[in-house]
Amino acid sequence: xxxxxxxxxxxxxxxxxxxxxxxxxxxxxxxxxxxxxxxxxxxxxxxxxxxxxxxxxxxxxxxxxxxxxxxxxxxxxxxxxxxxxxxxxxxxxxxxxxxxxxxxxxxxxxxxxxxxxxxxxxxxxxxxxxxxxxxxxxxxxxxxxxxxxxxxxxxxxxxxxxxxxxxxxxxxxxxxxxxxxxxxxxxxxxxxxxxxxxxxxxxxxxxxxxxxxxxxxxxxxxxxxxxxxxxxxx
Length: 234
What we know:
Blueprint: E1 2-5, H1 10-18, E2 23-26, H2 39-51, E3 55-64, H3 67-80, E4 84-91, H4 95-112, E5 117-123, H5 126-129, H6 138-144, E6 148-152, H7 167-179, E7 183-186, H8 195-201, E8 205-208, H9 223-233
Parallel strand pairs: 1-2, 1-8, 2-3, 3-4, 4-5, 5-6, 6-7, 7-8
């Protein structure tokens, strides 16, 4: 189980690397759950990540169903150096729309960098925002050529992944990814009390920010907390 930590700048990326994070995921919390950061920030973090022999992830936003916009944003992240490109399916309402949007994203990214990983991200609290269920995205994402699927929470109000999806739901989500030949990632205001169940569920990746910040999601990532997490999951 790899640990993905989501810094919003170079300073936080360095803290994440010092703590031993497996994947550095550049995002912009001010623009939402999967808010996109600026290309120059992604590029600057890329150089640092490469020095440490790690891979770089980047979010491209909580997106409406606009395949053209999504594919252009994803290409921008790939050009800036992201190894993983995460697309938030915020305004996507159906499996058909998942396929239509992600097929275009995959084409845009893979034409530029065939080795980049494309990740379709749904939301555990999808009913609160009217988006597609995480349990409905694996087949269309796989058919579109995605490398992985992810679940997060759309609204960051302190509610976590496990308040919206049962253990059975999460097992189905993980199995659906692997049945489709993809990896899976779990995120969504995860906390220290979730470590044991996450280790039992054994997703390929867990994504965190809040639990490794000194005092909440909008404060700073601390290397000591990242290190503590790495020790806990190992």
